[in-house]
What we know:
mainly alpha; 2 domains; 7 helices; 77% helix
Amino acid sequence: MKKILFLLSLLALGTGAFAQEPTEAKLALARETIAAMQVDKMLDNMAGQIKQMAMQRAQLPATATPEQRQRFDTFMGRVSELAMVEVKTMVTKLDVIYAEVYSEAELKAITSFFSTTEGKSMLAKQPQVMTRLMPLMQQLQQAMMPKLQKLAQEFEAEIKAEQAAAAAAFAPAPAITLPSTDPKP
Length: 185
């Protein structure tokens, strides 16, 4: 009985005592899938986009000197480089995730697809898809913003009403004045 309780407690705690590490063969298959998906090329393309977004968000004032602009460009290059190193480090762990999430049959099918002409075409056209998707996403954000603000205001009003009702429920009752029992008029 104690052994059963011990095993159940291990399962309940989620210690992972029964989880199996992916085999080297499955990890190799996952790496093959990642290579077929051309993740490295996607990251290289992403580097330019990261730098462009960073430059748009962090702009120097119009009064910046040419020296300040040069230092800023150097700084932003270092920021972009650091971001890409971190992303590439994260991707080195992608094989374990793929090996744990996908079955061998799924990894083989994914690899097969991305090795076909159609799969390669899909990968090559993804930047076009993203370019066309970005304006739609911006429109969506602009259309949603007033609606989100209205929801937030309604939520805030509800919270304030609840707080006011709770405060009123606990407010001291008005004092009751009893008639005087003093015999003097």
